[in-house]
Each structure stands twice: as C-alpha cells, then as structure tokens.
Design a protein that fits this description.
Length: 497
C-alpha cells in the first residue's frame, strides 16, 4: 500500500462525520490505534456485505460454522502461529518509536516489501534513506514482534485470541466428517472476530488490532483437484491474472479465460482455479469494478512452504493504492496434519479406493473490513453544482439505507401519507423518513450517505396516489404509482430494473 494522501484523510474524516466508522476507540479516553467502532450506517453496511458473503457461499453448498475466539496454547503451537506469526519491527535510534519495517518501506516508497528478508528490509531502508514518519533516524537492526494476543483461561491455562478464523475452522474436522457422512469434498466457512497485536497500525480499518474475518475451507482429496465438477460453470470467466513471471518482467496483469489458464498451466488444477474465480466473482458482487481488481500470484519465496499455490486478490484504492483484500491458497494437508500430530487424533478420511488419507484444503481468506473500506473509497464522489456536494455512489444492494421518504410539507395530510408509505416499505427495505428542511437539502443529506432512491410525497400524491421517485446518481425523477413502488424498488435494488 502506498503512503496515505489527502484523499485518505478526507475520506476517513467523512466516514466519522456521517456515522460509518468512529475511532480510534475508546475515543473519550484518548483512543488506542487499531481499534475502531462501526456507527449506525457503518454497521448496516457491514451487515449487508456479510449478507452478500453468506449468499455467495451458500449458493455453492458451503455451510457456515462458528467457533470460539479463544483457544489454548497447544492449538497455536500446532498451527505454527506461536513460533512464526510475527512481523519485522524496526525502532528509532532513541528506542522510543517502533514501526513495521516492510509496511514503512511500502508507505514511504511504494515498493512492495512484505516478502523481503531482514537483510533486504534494512538494505531498502538505507538505500532509500527512509526515516520514521516523525523524522527520527531508524536503528540498524530488524527485530521480530509477535502478533499473538495472549490471555488466560481460568486461573492458569495459557491461551490466545485467534489471529485468524482459519485455524479454529479446522478443529471440528471429525465432527464435520460425521455431519457430511464421511464424504468428500465439502466446504465450510466462518465469519468472525480475529485479533492481531499490530506494531503500529495506522491505515484506519485496513490494519486493525481487532477485525472481522471471513474464511472458507474446502476439504478434498488431491485426486479430486483435476476433475472439479463445478469448474465448467466458471470456465469462461475472464480473470485479470498477474503471474509471477509477468511481475518479474515488469508487466501488468493479463485477462485470461479460466479454461485457458488451465490449458496453459498458469493455474495448476481445476479445483484451485474454480476457487480463484469464485472469489473474484464475490468481489464483483460487492460492486467493485473489474478494472479495479487484479489477481496476483505469490512469488516462490513469498508463499508458505506447504502451499502448492497462492494468489491474492488486490484492489486499487484512491487512498492507499493497491490493497490486498483476499488470499486463495492450496494448503495441501499441512493444517490437518499438524493438528493430528499435536492432538494425537486421527484426522483422516477414506478415499473411494478405501485408503485412509489426510485431506487437502483449499482456503479462501479475507476480511470484511477491507472490502468495506474499498467500497467506500471507490464510492466517494463530489458533485459540482452551485455548491460542492458530496455523494456516495454505493451499489444499491449494499447501501445502508435503500430509500428515503420525504413529504414535501408537513401539513395537508402529506406527512401522514409519507409515514404510511414509510411503514409499508420498512417491512421490506432499509428506509429513512425525513420531513425536515427543503426537499433539495433532504436529497443531499441522503446522497451523502449513499441512499440510492428517494420518494417525494406532494400534492399530486393526494390526488392520484403517485409519488416522485428520484435516483441518486443521475438525479432522474419519475412519477410512480404507490401500489407499484415496492416492486420497482426491489427490481432496481437487485440490479434488475
């Protein structure tokens, strides 16, 4: 991610003012970086994004699970987090400030440094003459900072808050096998809180100490990867693939049909390719434009040693440049193998040939907060008129308010008619009723928070039972019968009208 700019400061201030995101929290006590609260509109938007996630996974037969946030130390030893889940840290020469070294390089220079070793990090800092944001000189040593948040269960059981949802999703594997009647493949997903003790989180909700993750795991045998039944449903999807080779050659992503990516061996197998395309389509469903998305393959020295292949979905922001929002990894049988070893339990499944094997896992890992911020970053716009007016061009299906209802005046029965329409529409849509101020000011208030439609009740409404329906982005207005408004809104909110 690039260094923050004036737009990022404008956007984050705006999100606070309009009730999307508050913080750092607890604000009345000075606040601690990395902790944010979602306000009334932010929480609604977050709920709507999670609804898209659930719909996307449910449509392909995944089952949602929920697991405790806290797990004993042995779990994190098995997963490798206790030993290896850390970030490179660099101090200022006076030892009073600390920064995550790779992100400091990225913010100050735009160089992607998350796969640099300690020597490469120090070399980049010196060659680019990078200093702390406060202007202080940096020490000539890279240290390691654990991201794990420690706690205690009862009086003496050592435990940690989970740094990701994925590890906890593996633990009920034996129960999954019972539920799925010992048959592979099957998929589960989980949406929930995770915690990372970040060194110096600064980029708003993009890098927090407490955040919401959504991850899925597909359990399958290796031989199932080549002939994945669902592949044909997405084989013609064109993906913006940025292979390791293209990156090394200094070239950008290339659009490629999924079937061609398999034929040219850009992607190793149909199961992994399907998960990559499935994830890409989910981000399109969030309303992120295709031209703002690329799929970046991990370098050989960047991906985990046990990973057969890993790609990230990245999106382009006005505020912080290219941002990783999702990782898709073929984790082979590493996770179940580790938990079998440390727990002493048999975590295997029987192949069609009757052989006991530890299943492989293809994992989709992403957060909810990052897509949410990306959507807001892309939706923010300023309309030049008599005065500068701000609007959020949010996709209608995820907007925190679908429609505003506005009686032209409070008298002559218009307010009562407006409340009647509001009460009826509230049964199906997220609505707001506003009778205060000029009609233009009321339109502007809702444009500013992304409300896609407005309904005006005027004197003609009292004569012929029609209202004025206004569209946010075009400001187009049309007369619609009250009896038809619910059907029209439903079609347009779902992108069908």
């Amino acid at each position: 991610m690039a260094q923050k700019n004036s737009f990022s400061e404008t956007l984050t201030a705006y999100l606070k003012e309009k009730g999307f995101v508050y913080g750092p929290e607890p604000e009345i006590y000075g606040g601690i970086s990395g902790f944010y609260a979602y306000g009334p509109l932010g929480k609604r938007l977050k709920n709507n994004i999670e609804a898209v996630i659930r719909k996307h996974f449910n449509s392909q037969g995944f089952f949602e699970i929920e697991y405790p946030i806290i797990a004993p130390e042995i779990v994190w030893k098995a997963s490798g987090h206790l030993e290896g889940f850390n970030d490179p840290v660099i101090l200022t020469e006076d030892g009073k400030e600390s920064y995550r070294a790779d992100k400091l390089i990225e913010e100050m220079t735009g160089i992607q440094a998350d796969h640099f070793n300690d020597g490469e990090l120090l070399r980049a800092i010196n060659e680019k003459n990078i200093k702390a944001p406060t202007g202080k000189k940096l020490a000539q040593k890279i240290g390691r900072h654990s991201l794990m948040m420690k706690t205690t269960i009862g009086t003496n059981i050592g435990a940690y808050n989970r740094p990701e949802t994925a590890t906890t999703t593996y633990l009920p594997f034996k129960n999954y096998m019972n539920f799925f009647r010992d048959k592979l493949p099957f998929g589960v997903f989980q949406i929930g809180k995770a915690f990372r003790n970040e060194i110096s989180p600064r980029q708003h909700i993009l890098r927090s100490r407490e955040f919401t993750q959504a991850e899925s795991q597909t359990f399958l045998f290796p031989e199932m990867k080549k002939n994945w039944e669902k592949f044909d449903g997405l084989k013609e999807e064109i993906l913006p693939l940025w292979t390791e080779g293209l990156q090394k050659d200094g070239k950008g992503p290339e659009g490629m049909e999924l079937s061609d990516a398999i034929e040219k061996k850009v992607l190793k197998n149909k199961a992994y390719a399907w998960h990559l395309a499935f994830s890409y389509k989910m981000f399109l469903e969030f309303g992120i434009p295709r031209e703002k998305i690329r799929l970046r393959q991990h370098h050989g020295d960047e991906k985990a040693f046990y990973s057969d292949d890993t790609w990230d979905i990245e999106v382009s922001l006005r505020s912080f440049g290219w941002l990783e929002v999702c990782g898709i990894s073929d984790r082979t049988n590493y996770d179940l193998g580790q938990h079998a070893k440390f727990s002493g339990q048999k975590l295997t499944a029987r192949t069609p040939e009757g052989k006991e094997e530890i299943p492989h896992v293809i994992e989709i890992a992403f957060g909810v907060d990052r897509p949410l911020f990306a959507i807001l970053d892309m939706a923010y716009d300023e309309r030049q008129a008599d005065e500068q007016r701000t609007l959020l061009r949010l996709p209608a299906w995820i907007a925190p308010v679908h429609v505003g209802i506005y009686p032209l005046v409070k008298k002559d029965g218009l307010a009562q008619k407006g409340e009647e329409i509001y009460n009826n529409l509230m049964k199906k849509f997220l609505c707001i009723y506003d009778e205060s101020g000029s009609i233009g000011r009321r339109y502007s208030r809702q444009d500013a928070v992304g409300t896609p439609f407005g309904i005006t009740i005027d004197y003609d409404t009292m004569k012929d039972n029609t209202i004025t329906l206004r569209e946010r982005d075009t400001m187009k207005q049309e007369r619609v019968k009250i009896s038809e408004i619910g059907e029209i809104l439903e079609a347009r909110i779902n992108g069908q009208g």
